[in-house]
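Researcher: Quick sanity check before group meeting.
Model: Go ahead. Protein one:
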Amino acid sequence: MKEKPPIRRSPVAAADCNLSRSFELIGDRWTLLILRSALHGVRRFDDFQADLDIPRTVLSNRLAGLVESGIVKRRNYREAGQRTRVEYPLTEMGQALALPFMAMTQWGDKYLGGKKLPLTLRAKSTGEKIAVAYVDGKGRRRKASDVEAVVDPAFRQPDIRND
């Protein structure tokens, strides 16, 4: 009798995978859109609501989750003659999302945008176009085909047999 091949699985269990944890934290549509707006400088509740046309209760819940996770913080502000209100600036953890969001933008430009490129990254100092890329420890650009994910043996999931 021929032995059945093992069922392939991701090398790391979802419970141990930091990418999976990231998806759990920011992976729903509204949270991603709020973060996109925040990365473009939106901070105030009413501005998020107007920018995204998001239901107020959904926005309130998502912002509370982002505060709890440490991605944004609550900060009071007050304009002259107005009552004190709250804004939601990104923390260092939230600002660090700029790179993966720009990588997703680059991916969307290539595969979804056709000839429409509404956003271009460029260096402030030179105006030169910038791309998100794999870079090694010496600053050299690497092709995706030259990149491998090395799994810590302590976290490696075994393949399972389909008996």
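Researcher: Fine. The other one?
Model: Protein two, sequence then structure:
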Amino acid sequence: MIAAEALAAGLDAPTLCELAGWPRNADARDIRDAFEQALAESGIRLPDRGLARRHSLRRMAARLIDGEMTPADLATDDWWETDVETAAEQSFVALIPQCDCCIEYTLGLDQQTWAARLRNAALALTSSPPIGPGC
């Protein structure tokens, strides 16, 4: 769908056209490789992994604020290992435990206090200056 939406928005690349017709159950690695090729054909460079994680962290904070995810949803990935560069990123990441069962143990906070602090950190992160294009 992303490929079809990109075509509809005016981005045009041979591999993007091909990718738009692929089935939903295509191999994820093949999709990623083709998408990267389509971006290269369009002159778009992907950010390095660290910068991409920082962009994702900011989008995740916005989704938390918008109610699209719960605080416990944040503990499902290795976000706490993300290399951060700003104080706002650090404040947000410091509140993400390795798993949702470890909130009190690792952070010394009850669920309600943790959720409130996490929301405040997410607000601070999303209102801080963007780290670059795409954020």
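Researcher: One line on it for the slide.
Model: The chain has a mean pLDDT of 86.
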